[in-house]
Amino acid sequence: MLLAILLIIIPLAFSLISFVGGRKLAPILGLTGAMASLLYFLYLLSNYNVRHELMYNTSMMWIPEIKGIFHVGIDGYSVIPLLLTQIVILFSVFYSFSKSESKSGAYYGLIGLAHAALNGFFIAQNPITFYLFFELALIPMYFLVLNWGNADRRRAVFKFFIYTIFGSVLLLAAIIYIHAAVGANQLLSWKEFYFNSFPMNTQLFILVAIIIAFGIKSPLFPFHTWQANLYSNADKPTVIILSALMSKMGVFGLLRFVYPVMPAINLYQPWIIGLCIVGILYGALMAWKQTDMNKLLAYSSLSHIGLIAASIFILNLQAIEGALFQIFVHGLCVTGLFALVGTLESTTGSSSIDASSGFARKNPRFATYFFIITLASIGLPLTAGFVGEFYMLFGLSEESIFYALFAGLSVILGAVYMFRFYQNSMFGNAKEVSLQSTPLKLNEEYIFIIVSILVIIFGFFPRMWIDFAGFSFLEYLEYLPK
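^ thats the sequence. predicted structure below, dont judge the formating
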């Protein structure tokens, strides 16, 4: 069955057409491709059985000499990030319409390539296919920042590229090491991979490699130094993809590779969780002191991703369910927040928080959307953010109440810096430029409305989506050596 592969082929086809479609046609092609991918995924989801181990399974020989199998399919872990990918890419393309006159066909073609690579990454069903799309996703993002970023984009994207390549080399080394240790037959699928019992020295090597490789991609503290500068220098549709999707590749990678090294994780868990908690608190405190909107959101993401990673390393049911659900919620929230920041920047001409002081006085609808998405971001009850954070903190508390207490400080700090951001930008001393009554562009307002609705709906009805993660966790747990 080629049903899963079509998630790669559809955006890839529209991407290739966009490259030659010209400046006027390319935005429509980009939007059509993103919409077609979303509708096709919803069709697949409508026929998905949450209790089924793997659906839409496709495998074919890729590199015969090493028994390299190209293997894709959709399991419970794939569903949530795949849904997020279709939504975020659609919003990213739609948001770019505000300045589509400055975008060439190559711009939408590159977004389509990133879309295809991200879909391939999340449906990859063995380490070799996983690595292929892990690498491919970097290429279009590099050129999107390099060609359409801000003044300091070259230095920012070069640092990002070097960091990511270093992480990729480590991940490849880990896969080769595993291949040499257990043979190609054990890398045909995640099930065979998880069934292995590795010696402790092999586990330690894999653990260090994946922490660094995926810690760079997410990023996690202390591998985050490329993040704030890159987010400040990429254009907003690209930042939305970077923050909402590329960062999730890192924590999703941890989720895929963490099972075979559970004994090593248990041995070093206090150190690993401690490092995650340092990153959680560091990101929150750095966000608190920022005066630049983009850097505030970058450090806020660092804090949120640290909590997701800590939950994955705990490896209990509630923590894993919360982590996967929070992957979706955080992706939605940063999509909305960066889109909001983009509107503020285009209106005031500055990314400074103070530059938009008093913006709500002439733009009350904008302030309302901002408020709703902020509430979800800090995890207010009855929003989707609360559900994910509750599950993760509950899972952490089952291992150690101190893990939950220290990680929970990020919730308090997050409320402080996000409300400070909201209050100073919307209701501070009014600047002349922020008092101008500038109508919201329709494409931007549609995004604000939909994100606001989704973070409330998923807050009221989270259970169905959480079950996707829960059933897969319990299934994969059965494959571990007893």
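The mean pLDDT is 87.
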